[in-house]
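INFO worker-7 received task bundle
INFO bundle size: 2
INFO processing item 0
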Amino acid sequence: MIAAPESTMASRENAYAPDPNLRIWIDGEIVSPAEAKISVFDHGLLYGDGVFEGIRIYNGRIFKDREHIDRLYESAKCLLLDVPMSKEEMSGAMNAAMEANNIIDGYLRVIVTRGVGLLGIAIGHTACPSVIIIAASIQLYPPEVYQRGLRCITAGTLRNHPSSTSPRVKSLNYLNNIMAKAEAKNAGSDEAIMLNSEGHVTEGTGDNLFVVRRGELHTPPPSEGILEGITRRLVMELARKRGYTVAESALIRHDIYVAQECFLTGTAAEIVPVVSLDGRAIGDGKPGPITKDLMQDFIAYRNRV
């Protein structure tokens, strides 16, 4: 085996190196990125065996922390993964990571791995799970994307079937999302919309999807193979407060092609308009009024909590 030249390895490390001033919470200790290491035998690395949550920080407060913690523990339970701390301890660790980095507005990534084990997929051959919490700034879509909207394609890569590892589990194995995102990039688009095995619309590569038809909002139900987004749930509440009808409905691409409006929702993206799919304009090809109203409502909500 020929090793990569040291100069090449160093340039790669420099290009993607995290901020050395960050402090990472890992298994009860707060350390620098250089010290934050897991074993090459950790099954999270070897097999994507673990779960995670992405959580926003606004005004020095963790947004919807209880909902994210509950979903993390539900995902872990589905994978027969015992999180080695209580929910209250997890909340304390998340706040400790945030405070160690002086984050006022940013992002938390909470990761639970299966832990160190033998080569092989048997979960009984692993040690205690590891918990890692990263608090940092976050790179959002640039402001112009929220003004012009996303240009999307339909991905050829399908969303996981609910009868396999359920998409409702936020697991470390994100390969189908990654490959769908790569399809969008290769096509010169901003994002990809993923279908299930029935040809029904599920969601984007990391965000839930809504369409507006005849003044009503429609979003695929969990049974279609989506992650039950916490932002999705909040947007449904905000829309109903405005008097809009919101329905969980099975959708196909036709429903997006003929929609008045379309948008995606997610922790990082918040609410972002979608203005085209597969080269076809949605509505008039611009972010619609209902989308804009909900974007304003969301910002007002998260600024006051």
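INFO item 0 finished
INFO processing item 1
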Amino acid sequence: MKITRRTQRLFRLQQALFYLLLIATVILLAKLSIDHNRQFDWTANARHTLSDSSLQLLNSLQNKVRIQVFVSPEYEYRQAVVDLLKRYQRQTDNLEVSYVDPNFSPDLVREMNIQQQGEMVVSRGDQTQHVLDLSEQSLTNALISVSRQQQQWLVFIEGHGERSLFDKNNFSFATWARQLESQGFKLQAQNLINTPQIPSNTAALVIASPTQDWLPGEVELVKDYLSNGGNLLWLADPEQTDSLSALSEMLGIEFIAGTVMDPTSVSLGLEDPRFVLISDYANHPIGQAVASVSLLADAVAIQQTEQLEQNQSWNSLNLLNSQPGAWVETTPINQSNLSSQAYDAGADVSGPLSMGYVLSRQLNDSGKQQRIAVIGDSDFASNAYIGNAANLELAMALANWLSADDKLIEIPVKTSVGTQLDLNRNQTIIIGFGFLLVIPLLLLATGLGIWWRRRRR
């Protein structure tokens, strides 16, 4: 082909058009990348993506929430803080995020009692929460806390052998109490003898398996509280006192004497048949908030009386059901006869059994709904068992429903999946020798082989 001047001009024109189109394409791609931000999270547990619970909360935000981040420009984890908040901001316009350099705002740092770099202050109106750790769970819990329309006070009755909110032994509720406070609940332990009046701002009263008798006057205080539309969470156990029979009669429920035995738990590896597996939940906000099986320990079954069935003002629902093979053991149980327990058709009560009831009714004078939950176990929320299965989710869902915040549920902690490799001694030795000897020798042999081939040419 003969190259003429015309051919050269066409070739140069073609080159110029190519570069112009290339530059235009780059500009358009840059414009698209700025206007449309698409991210893909391919991690095993989606740890760079907000959970469905967080997304649900952000979509339900109706008021502006302010987040102040106290972080210096040179802080090593500043970008991680920015990335986390951007995930939230992409889902809603109701988050106002500002970054404050603590080095140039000492007065504000002292005023807001800032303790560390990267601390976030989440506020809405007069409600404020501090976030100290960089996690979705902590930030979403803070958003839940400030999103509550009013302060939610949970009053735990004490003085009759009930479980403590503050002790760290296995019997107590300290772990549950910390989770409740992290979501904005205010907790108070009250002795009805010392303070014979239930506060008017109580969101729910909690009776946690008393073992000592109540005085008749104390029972009347609780009955008056319920008659005036108060909410109640009653956690019962087989050994609880009988002095609350007047309260159960008022609610139209009764506890079946004996301890629930569940052979399903033994078949799944649990040694004690007094562990009751709950996988059958009612179609209710509490049941929908529990993602998996919950585990009750040393529980008592509940049934409703004819009084409740005929009472049209209450809506009752069987919330928790045991496995069909469970039964109520009416004979005394101890360690010596535990393994030999079997269902006795003549004396025991066969399953499936109701392990929890929820009652609700509309209050005509205020238009609000009164809510009561009676659960045949208190061990599931104790320090010893609240970390098992979905017990924490169940405990938090009960508190949220009773305080009329049943849409606010616990945000699960995202943990890394498959980040730890366990090797035995032989595997460790093989890998060590491989890196220290085998790989260097292979590299040396390869280099010598290449050198020898080049020398022979």
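INFO item 1 finished
INFO post-check item 1: The radius of gyration is 32 Å.
INFO post-check item 1: The longest helix spans residues 425-456.
INFO worker-7 idle
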